């Protein structure tokens, strides 16, 4: 698991829950990554770990936006929820090609990774306050997601075109979602 990304996600969730607008940079929250599984080469293990993380992160976004769509009926949440399904499908396709098991739980709002569970719970609580707060959660989540994806892309081996292509696709989608949520806040 990429500890730097995990630390950045946790820091942002805590920042959002406290209502503070500043967050740490990945360098400030970085911790060394250690891989203990010896059955797979390090690069393959990290790629598999990243893919499992990515699909659960896309599920966090999907489940948050679905919950907000049900709470507020704002069209932007329904539209982006559909896009998050496509993102999960794209990650799953790469996972299947690489023989990586899908860790997702079927129940909305439930996650294998306890850090992602906390992130979801904190963002759901924040966005449940009112519609503008839910839009702000969308902005905060997408900003966090873009930063993490860009960090992963910078570290991904250029030779793994499936992974780099997937990361570029997810970054583009997150930037579109960020713009959509920001437009709602600016109204």
Automatic annotation (TrEMBL):
<dbReference type="Pfam" id="PF09968">
    <property type="entry name" value="DUF2202"/>
</dbReference>
<protein>
    <recommendedName>
        <fullName>DUF2202 domain-containing protein</fullName>
    </recommendedName>
</protein>
<dbReference type="InterPro" id="IPR019243">
    <property type="entry name" value="DUF2202"/>
</dbReference>
<feature type="signal peptide">
    <location>
        <begin position="1"/>
        <end position="22"/>
    </location>
</feature>
<dbReference type="InterPro" id="IPR012347">
    <property type="entry name" value="Ferritin-like"/>
</dbReference>
<feature type="domain" description="DUF2202">
    <location>
        <begin position="49"/>
        <end position="186"/>
    </location>
</feature>
<keyword id="KW-0732">Signal</keyword>
<dbReference type="InterPro" id="IPR009078">
    <property type="entry name" value="Ferritin-like_SF"/>
</dbReference>
